From TrEMBL:
Name of this protein: N-acetyltransferase domain-containing protein
Domain of life: Bacteria
Protein's organism: Actinomyces respiraculi
Gene3D superfamilies, sorted: 3.40.630.30
InterPro entries per record: Acyl_CoA_acyltransferase
Length: 62
């Protein structure tokens, strides 16, 4: 289900050059899903007592 949702989000706007998303540091399953689907971590920010993990994926054809 998660991979299907990512693919849909990636195809919604055909002229988009990249997609960015984030998840909590404790969401190990999300982090694995994003990494497995070509997203790379770009940084972390603090939100209260938690770290938010930011990801990006280029949608341009190479």
């Amino acid at each position: 289900m998660g991979t299907r949702l990512l693919r849909h989000a990636e195809s919604v706007h055909p002229r988009a050059q990249e997609i960015r998303l984030f998840t909590g540091e404790r969401s190990a399953a999300n982090i694995r899903l994003y990494t497995r689907n070509g997203y790379r971590e770009t940084g972390r920010t603090t939100a209260g007592a938690y770290q938010i993990v930011h990801f990006v994926k280029s949608l341009r054809e190479t």
